[in-house]
């Protein structure tokens, strides 16, 4: 059925009729005065038609077609299959707990929709299921409430109603309220069942673990974790780390009521190879969901040979025990240079005949120890200091400073090492601070949590160990720590103008690290326990400083990058070090490479050389998506090639254990004339949908007053009238 519809007010109708009457009278008068000439009559008729058409347009006419459907209307049931539906929070009358998806499977059956099927066809569809075209990707699953509703409206013109079974966890796409407005215009109600609870069940959840990309044998590996509590009381418990069935370590944590704890636990691997670790929390008595108290992760443990260079003057006790500790470490290859003032360079097993005074000779070392040596004749030269600084800043090596009673450390600020020293030394007291009584090293707040000072996984127990360690009778004179340094330990009694005298200090220098230990008595930590703490401390120092250098390496080429565990959107800073066949840094303006993204795209990259001639090439690249990036870097001229994989892990938008979003479902239902209920209200909701009236006939409106074709017709009439007046000679 079709008819005209006008939206003009009555006053405009009166004006239009009056103007049309006046136009008729005026056209008749013009035709009559011309002697009733036929051409004038035709022209006046055209003018009246034009005026009448314009007046007709002002009345805002619309051609309305009413379309009555002959097919049976449809009701579509949309079921949320996203990961958040795995949340177990449906409490049954039997006190059993089911997941949201289990409840859907138990209640969504063919007979459920029988009342609706008597008056409409029922279609059941799923959305946001992983691996389907309605989920963004397997790497980043999410729930888009707007997309399935929009697609449904586009492909179906006979909808009676829509029923959505979901937890309302909308975390991607446009606001569903926008598409709900279109449903309201089409007079199609949206009903919903909010599957789940607004208030989560009492529970403890081990949310996440963020391990490093690899670990070394003997290294203290930090495993950060997040624990969330939905219990109304404070929980003091122990988190336990196991490898297989063997308990590795445990840590006491206190979780506030309805709060969370971000902490870390240490793992010290003893063997190389893949390690499968399990981190778990004991189940509390009132917990409803015990299975989310545990997570398993895999970690690649490597037995790399770390090269260490120890440089000192006299074979003091600190030097002897440090050398022995490093030599007995199976993962360390130690070399020594001893500048004995009276006897000349020391010799023997693992001794070098001279200081490695070239880039290719020094860059092989992961960590350099400088003892009671300085700048001067028969010691280090200014060129040696420049090389040490270069290998730290450019090659990601570590530098450890252990001054002695000769005071030679006060000459280091006169060299290139000045800017990378963690502390400001008191040059007026090069002999240091001798003590009559034994004093100890006190950990700072930062030091209590730092990896280097961990002798026990429990922080309180670890602090007690440090308090019980044998002390020292001498320390270097230090004015203060430099900006950007981290003070891990201070003198327990002596103070400077800036506060407690810092004695254990770390600092980043370029891509490397620097550590300052202001006492020569760490060897005394062996008293009564042999090598338990002394060996462990220096083992942790060497591996902590070497970690970045060994992220990825092949023969003659090494790649380090930050952040080590990137996320989509992060900028990845890559640094490649390339050596030629002789072990010298190559001298090229750049090297080439490729990045193969998770989506299959391959991008050519170019790493530009850093000044200084260290064979270092850098590049920053933004990771736009989650997944594994296969990176290849090569120097064909020098036959060097490295292939590695970096995984960008996106934080999951789909959180298991989150409460439902009932508000958004209620707003959609209210906007469209539907209803939102809890799971218990599903039968009543089905009954209400079954008695909905038939969809009203669809109206198709053609707005003539704003249609471009009608505008073209008016323009054509105006042109024709103008030409007609010229032809009859009136202009």
For the structure shown, list the relevant keywords.
731 residues, alpha+beta, Rossmann fold, Immunoglobulin-like, 5 domains, nine-stranded mixed sheet, eight-stranded antiparallel sheet, 15 helices, 34% strand, elongated
Structural overview:
- The protein contains 15 helices and 39 strands.
- A hairpin with a 2-residue loop joins strand 30 and strand 31.
- It is 24% helix and 34% strand.
- The longest helix has 24 residues.
- By secondary structure, it is α+β, with helices and mostly antiparallel strands.
- It folds into five domains: 95 residues, no CATH class; 164 residues, von Willebrand factor, type A domain (Rossmann fold, 3-Layer(aba) Sandwich); 96 residues, Immunoglobulins (Immunoglobulin-like, Sandwich), CATH 2.60.40; 244 residues, Class I glutamine amidotransferase (GATase) domain (Rossmann fold, 3-Layer(aba) Sandwich); 97 residues, Sandwich (Immunoglobulin-like), CATH 2.60.40.1930.
Helices and strands, with pairings:
Elements: E1 2-6, H1 10-33, H2 38-58, E2 61-67, E3 74-80, E4 88-91, E5 97-99, H3 100-107, H4 114-117, E6 121-127, H5 146-155, E7 159-166, H6 176-185, E8 190-194, E9 204-209, E10 215-216, E11 221-229, E12 235-243, E13 246-255, E14 260-267, E15 273-280, E16 294-302, E17 306-312, H7 317-327, E18 332-340, E19 344-345, H8 359-362, E20 367-370, H9 382-395, E21 398-401, E22 423-425, E23 433-439, E24 441-443, H10 445-449, H11 459-468, E25 472-475, E26 478-481, E27 486-496, E28 499-509, E29 512-517, H12 534-546, E30 552-554, E31 557-562, E32 571-578, E33 590-596, E34 602-609, E35 616-622, E36 627-635, E37 640-648, H13 662-672, E38 676-677, H14 682-690, E39 698-703, H15 708-727
Parallel strand pairs: 3-6, 3-7, 7-8, 8-38, 10-16, 17-18, 17-20, 20-21, 21-29
Antiparallel strand pairs: 1-2, 2-39, 4-5, 9-11, 11-14, 12-13, 12-15, 15-16, 18-19, 22-26, 23-25, 24-27, 27-28, 28-29, 30-31, 31-32, 32-35, 33-34, 33-36, 34-35, 36-37
Helix pairs in contact: 1-2, 2-15, 5-6, 6-13
């Amino acid at each position: 059925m079709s008819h005209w519809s006008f939206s003009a007010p009555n006053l405009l109708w009166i004006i239009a009729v009056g103007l049309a009457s006046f136009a008729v009278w005026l056209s008749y008068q013009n035709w009559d005065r011309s002697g009733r000439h036929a051409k004038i009559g035709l022209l006046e008729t055209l003018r009246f038609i034009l005026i009448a058409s314009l007046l007709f347009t002002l009345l805002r006419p619309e051609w309305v077609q009413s379309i009555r459907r002959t097919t049976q209307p449809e009701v579509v049931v949309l079921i949320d299959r996203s990961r958040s539906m795995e949340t177990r929070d449906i409490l049954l009358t039997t006190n059993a707990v089911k997941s949201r998806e289990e409840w859907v499977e138990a209640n969504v059956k063919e007979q459920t929709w029988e009342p609706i099927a008597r008056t409409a066809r029922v279609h059941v569809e799923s959305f946001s299921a992983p691996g389907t075209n309605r989920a963004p990707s397997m790497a980043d699953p999410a729930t888009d409430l707007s997309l399935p509703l929009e697609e449904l409206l586009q492909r179906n013109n006979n909808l009676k109603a829509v029923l959505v079974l979901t937890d309302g966890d909308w975390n991607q796409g446009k606001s569903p309220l926008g598409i709900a407005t279109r449903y309201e215009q089409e007079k199609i109600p949206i009903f919903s069942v909010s599957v789940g609870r607004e208030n989560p069940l009492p529970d403890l959840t081990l949310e996440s673990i963020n391990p490093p990309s690899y670990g070394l044998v003997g290294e203290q590996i930090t495993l950060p974790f997040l624990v969330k509590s939905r219990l109304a009381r404070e929980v003091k418990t122990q988190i336990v780390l196991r490898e297989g069935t063997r308990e590795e370590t445990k840590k006491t944590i206190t979780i506030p009521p309805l709060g969370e704890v971000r902490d870390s636990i240490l793992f010290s691997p003893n063997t190389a190879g893949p390690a499968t670790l399990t981190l778990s929390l004991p189940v509390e008595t009132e917990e409803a969901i015990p299975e989310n108290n545990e997570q398993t992760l895999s970690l690649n443990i490597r037995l790399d040979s770390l090269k260490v260079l120890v440089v000192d003057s006299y074979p003091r006790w600190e030097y002897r025990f440090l050398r022995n500790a490093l030599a007995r470490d199976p993962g360390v290859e130690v070399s020594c240079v001893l500048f004995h003032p009276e006897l000349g360079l020391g010799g023997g097993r693992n001794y070098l005949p001279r200081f490695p005074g070239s880039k290719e000779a020094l860059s092989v070392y992961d960590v350099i120890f400088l003892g009671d040596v300085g700048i001067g004749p028969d010691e280090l030269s200014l060129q040696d200091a420049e090389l040490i600084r270069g290998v730290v800043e450019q090659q990601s090596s570590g530098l450890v400073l252990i001054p002695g009673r000769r005071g030679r450390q006060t000459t280091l600020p006169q060299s290139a090492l000045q800017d990378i020293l963690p502390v400001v030394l008191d040059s007026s007291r090069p002999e240091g601070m001798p003590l009559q009584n034994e004093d100890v090293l006190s950990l700072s707040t930062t030091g209590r949590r730092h990896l280097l000072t961990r002798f026990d996984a429990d922080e309180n127990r670890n602090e007690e160990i440090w308090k019980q360690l044998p002390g020292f009778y001498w320390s270097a004179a230090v004015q203060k720590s430099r900006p950007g340094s981290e003070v891990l330990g201070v003198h327990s009694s002596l103070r400077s103008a800036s506060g407690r005298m810092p004695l254990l200090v770390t600092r980043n220098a370029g891509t490397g690290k620097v550590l300052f230990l202001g006492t020569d008595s760490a060897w005394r930590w062996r008293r009564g326990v042999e090598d338990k703490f002394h060996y462990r401390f220096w083992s942790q120092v060497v591996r902590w400083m070497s970690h970045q250098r060994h992220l990825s390496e092949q023969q003659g080429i090494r790649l380090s990058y930050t952040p080590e565990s990137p996320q989509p959107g992060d900028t990845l800073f890559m640094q490649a070090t390339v050596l030629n066949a002789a072990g010298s840094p190559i001298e090229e303006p750049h090297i080439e490479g490729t990045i193969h993204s998770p989506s299959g795209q391959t991008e050519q990259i170019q790493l530009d050389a850093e000044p200084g001639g260290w064979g270092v090439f850098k590049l920053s690249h933004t990771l736009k998506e989650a997944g594994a990036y296969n990176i290849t870097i090569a120097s064909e001229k020098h036959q060097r090639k490295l292939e590695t994989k970096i995984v960008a892990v996106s934080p999951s938008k789909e959180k298991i254990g989150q409460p439902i979003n009932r508000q958004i479902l209620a707003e959609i239902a209210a906007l469209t004339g539907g209803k939102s209920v809890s799971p218990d209200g599903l039968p009543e909701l089905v009954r209400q949908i079954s008695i909905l009236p038939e969809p009203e006939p669809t109206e198709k409106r053609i707005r003539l007053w704003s249609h471009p074709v009608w505008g073209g017709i008016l323009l054509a009439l105006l042109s024709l009238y103008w030409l007609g007046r010229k032809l009859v000679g009136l202009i």
